[in-house]
Amino acid sequence: MRAYILPALLLPGFTLLSGCLSDSGPPAQPSFYASMAEEGATVDATAAASMISGYRGNNGLGPVEVDADLMRIALDHAHAMAAKDKVDRSAGREFANRLAAAGFDGKIAAENVGAGYHTLAEAFSGWRDSPQHRANMLKGGVNRLGIAAVYAPQSKYKVFWALIMAAKEEGRV
């Protein structure tokens, strides 16, 4: 039996495509690589929860989910740091007071702050590579998170970050 290789037949108006019939361009960049160093940029909290949950799972811990109250608290704190142009856990109200006001137990909570990371991937890597920040992301008992990145064009850092992980107090939803 003889095998023949037939030349591709090209008809006017048709092109030979390799494996794909769609001309939608290259795949979209994952949101964790999106730059937060531009006006109007917002961090993808769902991607952050997925990334952190995966990391926690690899370390024998449960996942975290996005919480609207923690998102607001994180955003307020990132704004306070940007306004002061300073990375500071107490740039706004005391951490425990911020949490208690929203019904969270400060004993089962952790906060990571940072500045200068332009993407979620950079912030996550920086926190993962820091013993204190890593310990916060691997805190037992937490199951919710809020994360924010605030662009501050006047600052040498350009972006201020706040990550809060916590668990609701018993009996509160």
Structure explained in plain terms:
- The structure is a single chain.
- The chain has 173 residues and is α+β, with helices and mostly antiparallel strands.
- Helix content is 31%, strand content 20%.
- It has 5 helices and 4 strands.
- The chain has helices at residues 45-58, 68-84, 95-101, 120-128, 131-137; strands at 65-66, 104-115, 144-152, 158-168.
- A 4-stranded mixed sheet has the order 1-3-4-2, with helices on both faces.
- The longest helix is centred in the middle third of the chain and has 17 residues, at 68-84.
- The chain is globular.
- Residues 1-20 have low confidence and may be disordered.
Question: What order do the helices and strands come in, and which of them pair?
Answer:
Blueprint: H1 45-58, E1 65-66, H2 68-84, H3 95-101, E2 104-115, H4 120-128, H5 131-137, E3 144-152, E4 158-168
| Number of extended strands | 4
Structural category: alpha+beta
Low-confidence stretches: 1-20
Q: Give the proportion of residues in helices.
A: 25-40%
Q: How confident overall, as mean pLDDT?
A: 84
Q: What would the principal axes of the Cα set say about the shape?
A: globular
Sequence of secondary-structure elements: HEHHEHHEE
Report the β-strand fraction as a percent range: 15-25%
By DSSP (H or I, 4+ residues per run), the number of helices equals 5
Rg, nearest Å: 22 Å
Q: Largest sheet, if any?
A: 4 strands, mixed
Distance between the termini: 73 Å
| Side-by-side strand order of the widest sheet | 1-3-4-2
